[in-house]
Design a protein that fits this description.
The complex is a heterodimer of chains A (430) and B (292). Chain A is an alpha/beta fold. Chain A has helices at residues 24-38, 89-96, 129-139, 144-158, 173-185, 203-219, 231-237, 255-265, and strands spanning 6-18, 50-51, 62-74, 78-83, 104-109, 113-116, 191-195, 223-227, 240-245, 248-254, 272-274, 284-292, 301-303, 308-316, 323-331, 336-341, 358-364, 372-382, 385-399. In chain A, helix 3 packs across helix 4 (144-158) and helix 3 packs across helix 5. The model of chain A has no long low-confidence stretch (mean pLDDT 79). In chain B, helix 4 (86-108) runs antiparallel to helix 9. Chain B has helices spanning 25-30, 32-46, 56-75, 86-108, 110-113, 115-118, 127-156, 173-197, 200-214, 222-228, 233-237, 240-253, 260-285, 288-291; one strand spanning 12-14. In chain B, 68% of the residues lie in helices and 1% in strands. Chain B is mainly α. Classes of the chains: A alpha/beta (430), B mainly alpha (292). Strand 5 of chain A pairs antiparallel with strand 1 of chain B.
């Protein structure tokens, strides 16, 4: 056959769901389906499904959560699966881990698949940590012998040694998750399916968990399918990625290429972002954020190295004695790049009493952020009382700068995925 | 790492094809530790954080039996047979009935009660109803010990007029246990499969089991019913649970009737419902998570 060692082959997998409630309508459909089958005909409902688009209203009750998904995974490969909410990632993983079966198509595998869909499955709150390790391990497919040989490592990894003989109901939620992840981390299937388990626990444990994932993925040469919204983690762990969109494969390929495609297609940025509130909201809030490019035109597309201006409009019905404003830019992998806080500046015009609607402007003369999509967060407080926060509700797109007499065209890709560029001068001394 | 070398050899295939009967015994065997752990979980968690602990396993049947004796024998004057204490009669019937009904209600709830686990990890789903039956078997064992204890008490200390004695049919006892489990498991699995989509069956089980107890000769001997209400006795007679409870009392206390005809009928009934249950369960387990 081929030189490559294919361990998992997904061939034309589709999954159809019926929307709405289960009721008398389902009985009549069930009967119809049965009647077609009795006569040896094809299921009539397979023809009528619609594309899975969450936002738009469809005509049919049947949708395809997955449509004609085919891909292959090599032995030892770490494959990332990304996509928006409702793109079909979880459905695909559920089919892979045999929780549900596909409507059509088939999956062939050469190894056992174990899934880490959600940690802590089957934990019983009345049982002790140790008992739960055994139960959970067995549910995940380990034999008693395997668990016995690993139990000390599991307990140590979880860091719950002291509580191990106490019922799990006495654990803090973080401890439960630690214990659960520890059990799952010591699974040894040929193919491991991981879904967003990294978003648990405190900082220390997250590092541990990511480290363990890297060990599994890189060191031990295990085949891993990794689903996450954390693009940094995907780029870090995976070599190849699949982008799902509305139940179909939009793009397969090198992880950087797919992630970038996903990030740029998911932005819906406009030059002015207005925030909506319900009526009960506090009497001080952020109304809108407007971005101006170097030509002083409203736009969310800004050029690196040029002047930008950000105007924030507030709606205030109370007295502010010591207003503090903070604007932050972060990348889509949630790395904070820069935060401007008004009280860090000597010349802040904002240290005064305000009691009406007003707006503030933040001007940056040359903003050297390399091309890509970035999130903008805005918050304001009165003294220490936080009045309103709009976290990552606005986005800007940085365009690469035009070359000038001091540098060539600059892009993120050219500067090996750095985020920031600042003017500098190279010189030669002898 | 990967021991499978050959290119064309796939370990298994996930596909929508539904075979009528697809029970993978090798797989169930691989998950035997899970079965044991489930049983352990059921047993030890039931009375955790109670003072009396496992004594509850004894107290419950005791008080139910006392109540039954008071109501049905002392108040309603239902005869329990010559020389057999009413208390022993009821204890025998109730132990048996409880075993069957807990198997039935326990398994009939499988999919709904475990949708949290089933929706996230795969293991052979049959493990769950099997574990329920096994843990109920253990509980039945405890009740059996209580029964034997009272049996000995009655034969040694209250022996005047005591004529109850085991009969040769006692050798059928292990068989009886299996058949009752099959029946409870079979019907329970059928119901659990339907419950995933149509919740109506939950209500059916709720009062159905209660009604069934009255129709299963638990608190009266079959012969007495036949004598009093002969026109409806066929309902009771063709209820397989009646046969099993009557047989249990016949083999342990030597009262009631035993007929090979009804025995074979009930055995066939149990096996058939078990088989149908397995098939239906197997079909459901593949996609129940979409409809539950």
């Amino acid at each position: 056959m081929k030189d490559r060692d294919i361990i998992l082959k997904v061939d034309g997998v589709s999954k159809q769901y019926r929307l709405g409630l289960v009721g008398t309508g389902t009985i009549s459909d069930d009967l119809k389906r049965w009647w077609y089958r009795v006569r040896g005909k094809e299921d009539p409902f397979l023809k009528i499904g619609e594309r899975n688009d969450r936002a738009s209203r469809g005509k049919s009750d049947y949708v395809w959560a997955l449509r004609d998904i085919s891909f292959e995974v090599e032995q030892g490969e770490v494959l990332g699966i990304i996509g928006k909410n409702g793109a079909g990632k979880s459905t695909l993983l559920k089919i892979l881990s045999k929780v549900t079966s596909p409507t059509i198509g088939e999956i062939k595998t050469k190894g056992r698949i174990a899934s880490l869909l959600e940690v802590g499955t089957g934990f019983h709150s009345e049982m002790t940590g140790r008992e739960n390790i055994f139960l959970n391990g067995a549910i995940l497919g380990m034999t008693k012998k395997e668990i016995v040989s690993k139990i000390n490592a599991i307990i140590e990894f979880s860091g719950c040694e002291r509580y191990i003989d106490t019922p799990v109901k006495r654990y803090s939620s973080g401890m439960t998750v630690r214990l659960a992840f520890a059990v799952a981390a010591f699974l040894e299937p040929e193919i491991l399916v991981v879904d967003e388990v990294l978003a648990v626990g405190d900082d220390e444990f997250q590092k541990k968990a990511i480290g363990k994932m890297q060990d599994i993925a890189k060191g031990e040469g295990r085949t891993v399918l990794f689903v996450s919204h954390n693009m940094a983690a995907v780029q870090d762990l995976c070599s190849r990625a699949i982008l799902l969109s509305n139940g179909e494969i939009e793009l397969t390929g090198n992880v950087d290429e797919v992630v970038n495609h996903y990030l740029s297609s998911s932005s819906t940025s406009e030059g002015k972002v207005e925030f909506s509130y319900d009526k009960s909201h506090e009497s001080a809030k952020i109304n809108s954020i407007t971005f101006f490019n170097e030509e002083n035109k409203v736009s969310s597309q800004l050029v690196s190295g040029k002047k930008i201006k950000i105007l924030v409009d507030f709606n205030v019905k109370r007295q502010l004695r010591n207003p503090v404003f903070s604007l932050r830019i972060s990348d889509l992998q949630n790395v904070n790049i820069v935060t401007w806080r008004s009280n860090d500046f000597v010349e802040s015009p904002l240290k005064k009493n305000i009691s009406t609607n007003f707006s503030i402007t933040l001007e940056i003369d040359s903003f050297y952020l390399l091309n890509g999509i970035y999130d903008v967060s805005m918050g304001f407080a009165d003294g220490k009382e936080v009045l309103d926060m709009q976290l990552k509700k606005a986005q800007i797109e940085m365009l690469s700068s035009k070359p000038n007499n001091s540098y060539h065209i600059l892009t993120k890709e050219k500067s090996s995925n750095s985020l920031v560029f600042t003017p500098a001068k190279w010189s030669y001394n002898d | 790492m990967n021991s499978i070398e050959t290119q064309d050899k796939w370990l298994y295939t996930i596909s929508p094809k539904k075979k009528l009967f697809n029970l993978n015994f090798k797989e169930i065997w691989r998950y035997r530790d899970l079965l044991i752990l489930f049983v352990k979980r059921d047993i030890i968690t039931l009375y955790k954080q109670t003072v009396l602990g496992p004594i509850w396993y004894v107290i419950q049947p005791l008080f139910t039996t006392l109540t039954f004796t008071l109501i049905f024998n002392n108040l309603a004057n239902i005869p329990t047979g010559e020389g057999v204490p009413a208390f022993l009669f009821n204890l025998a019937g109730l132990s048996c009935w409880n075993y069957f009904s807990t198997c039935l209600t326990g398994t009939s709830n499988t999919f709904k009660a475990n949708q949290g686990i089933f929706g996230k990890v795969y293991f052979p789903r049959v493990i769950t109803p099997m574990s329920i039956v096994i843990s109920n078997l253990l509980k039945f064992g405890i009740r059996l010990l209580v029964f034997i204890g009272f049996y000995l008490y009655f034969s040694f200390f209250r022996s005047e007029g005591m004529q109850a004695a085991p009969t040769w049919t006692l050798i059928l006892f292990p068989f009886l246990i299996c058949m009752m489990a099959f029946l409870g498991l079979g019907i329970g699995m059928i119901i659990s499969s339907f419950t995933t989509k149509y919740r109506d069956f939950t209500y059916l089980v709720g009062f159905g089991v209660q009604l069934l107890m009255y129709g299963s000769a638990v608190m009266y001997p079959l012969s007495y019913f036949k004598e009093k209400v002969p026109e409806f006795s066929w309902i009771i007679e063709y209820n397989p649970v009646t046969t099993f409870i009557e047989l249990f009392r016949y083999m342990t206390l030597g009262i009631g009737t035993f007929s090979w005809y009804y025995f074979l009928y009930s055995v066939c009934f149990s096996l058939l419902s078990f088989l149908i249950g397995l098939i239906v369960f197997n079909r459901t387990e593949k996609s129940f998570i979409d409809t539950v």
